[in-house]
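Lab notes, practical 5.
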Amino acid sequence: MSISYYHIDSFASELFACNPAGVCIVPAFPANDVMQKIAAENRHSETAFVVARADGDFYLRWFTPVVEDDLCGHATLAAAYALSLRGHGAWPVRFHTVSGLLTVNRDHDRFEMDFPARPAVPCEIPIGLLSALGLETAEVMREPRDYLIVVNRAEVVRNLKPDMAALAKIDMGKSGGAIITAVGENDVDYVCRFFAPSEGIDEDPGTGSIHCTLVPYWAGRTGKQTFRVQQLSPRGARMWCTLVGDRVKIAGEAKLYLQGTINI
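Output from the prediction step:
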């Protein structure tokens, strides 16, 4: 089998920044174990598999190196960008996924995803979570997949050095992780980082799906609906996010690093 393959830096305005994703364009989904092996071989935090439907829409699935994911932003953006490189001209592109219908619109170099909001609610703090993150105190909430940890300064988010081995031992459910956030600085409304070692991702460089939780939280706290966001990972990322009812719009740019063929 030959698979058309794209390596794309998502949420990036230049190469070698933000979050690399693999995109495989396939006529039909390979067996689950084959997709998992491809994702493990790619070693990106996410590899997307895209299948065209007869009605002009697409099926989309995401795999980390160790599990199938239920929602991924940067690989969805990468999938839309890969389709644009292949001459797809009908926007917004419509992806059918396990998390429902997701759309991606295009405005010149920027791609805007339409995702479901996933508000977090107060919860008990798992034993060892804060210490694994190197924190003494923080506000902790939970949404269906991830924990949301709110600290008081952007500097705290920037300087975090989690104990990944300890963090990986905490039961966060399937494909769950820890979102860390604080109010932003200068022209940035809020900052964030995301750690999911049990999912095969120690730190995700630029994460779209976490804003399904972050945007409702910061909207409730500030009264704003539109946000400029910075992810403070070593590779860095910037997004533009908007709350629209029970949906979250997440926008960013992308750059093609590599295009080729996977032979299996």
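Observations recorded by the TA: The mean pLDDT is 96. The first helix runs from residue 32 to 42.
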